Amino acid sequence: MMRVTLDLRCNECGHNQFHMPVQRMEGHGIYCASCNAFLCDTHNLEKAFQAINRAAPARQTPAALSA
Ligand SMILES: [Zn+2]
Fold first, then answer.
1. Which domain of life is it from (predicted)?
2. How much is the pLDDT for 64?
3. How many A from CA of 42 to the centre of ligand 1?
């Protein structure tokens, strides 16, 4: 497992560091580095980030620059 800091918060304790699997045998789950609560599946992480980016205001997107 690899310890990573993400722009996500643990649902249980609010921690933003997580253990991410780096080898196939370690599975697909991402867990909180503090309380070990399950965060999400690695397959869902990209979707989670996309949801955050969509929700975040005032990003310099082409649409924002032209507005
Ligand atoms: Zn936690």
1. Bacteria
2. 54
3. 17
Cα four-point dihedral sign 34, 3, 27, 25: negative
d(CA 9, CA 37): 11
What is the enclosing helix (H) or strand (E) of 41? strand 38-41
Segment 6-36, tens digit of pLDDT: 988 999 999 999 999 999 899 999 999 999 9
Neighbours of ion ligand 1 (CB under 5 A): 10, 12-13, 15, 32, 34-35, 37
Q: How far is the CA of 19 from the centre of ligand 1 (A)?
A: 11
Contact present, 28 and 42 (Cβ < 8 Å):
yes
Domain ranges across the chain? 2-52
